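Progress against Task 2.4 (sequence-to-structure conversion) is shown through the following example record, which the project officer requested during the mid-term review.
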Amino acid sequence: MVRTQIQLTENQHRALKRWAQQIGISLSEAVRRCVEERLARENPTPTYEQKVRAALSVCGKYRDPAGPSRVAQEHDRYLAEIYRK
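Structure tokens generated for the chain above:
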């Protein structure tokens, strides 16, 4: 953990301290939970379904200007060639 110093208004400190006491955690843990909750709302972790939808949305959109290749079928052979060099 990283030690840091913050400044709260008196009302924020009082309310946060009261909440921490009600649920039986330290003031530091209360601050960490508030920060974590806010960060999760700002940058939510995508669900599995959202990841699949995003991956499917790009399928077929990008084509190699040199034409189709056999990389998917022959990736082991291509890797072996590269590592021999």
